[in-house]
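We close this part of the discussion by returning to an individual protein. The amino acid sequence and the backbone structure tokens for this protein are reproduced below:
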Amino acid sequence: MKKLKVLGLAAIAAGMVTLTSCLDSGGNKQTLQSYAIVDYSSTMRKLIYPLGYYPLYIPAVANDVNYNPGDCVIANYTVDFDSPDNANASTNGFYVASGAASSALPKYNFSFSESDSTALEGEVLLSGAESVLMMSANYQRIIAEPIFESILTDQKNDYRLMFDYDQEPATVNSTERVYTLYLRCQKLTDGKAPTLSNAKDAAIFDAGQFYSTLKSRESAAGKKVASYQVKYAKSFNSDSTKVMTWGVSNISQFSIAESE
């Protein structure tokens, strides 16, 4: 097998994707790992919608009652494009794959509210953050990856994502009409040794209303994509009562063009 590429949120402003091509044995297969949304197709077949990839029918997921529409998971799967099961993929609207998925990732609170510099109770500083807006047939989800310079193993956190509905988009690094969200992190329970360095977590947010809002505004402005960035608390003042420095993610974009 020849490893082609590894893409993460920092590389494509979107989830964890590992792409492997197995062509040396005569097959035409791809083995991947990525974030995905569980959802039903128009024919009521339970599929997963991986980030930046085709909708997939994975029997192990489709036949498991523990997976519900709207769940976000980390899926591992192999697609055999030469399989008879995939001969009519274009007509079916999905590929059949083998594989499995994690349990549903936890969802956190998304609110249309302003974020001020007052430190939250138990707020945890972040050293970085990236995010992507994912879509399936019926759902929109933001997947954020907060990054910690150091954190104890198994520390439990709560996350909030805030969007000021009344804000005007700004030009950021030559990208026009960029909206800003704020990601805040609060510690719920202490972790244990060892301490992890440059650790990432995955935080899922329901983004249906956010998607509809930006789609309406940016379509009215004649745009085909919407752009946003995420700010996060990077340092406190001397008594840790206010956020002194806000870090900022890469700009994320998603299409708002209607399918033809």
Observations:
- Residues 156 and 189 are 5 Å apart (CA to CA).
- The two ends are 37 Å apart (CA to CA).
- Residues 2-101 form one domain.
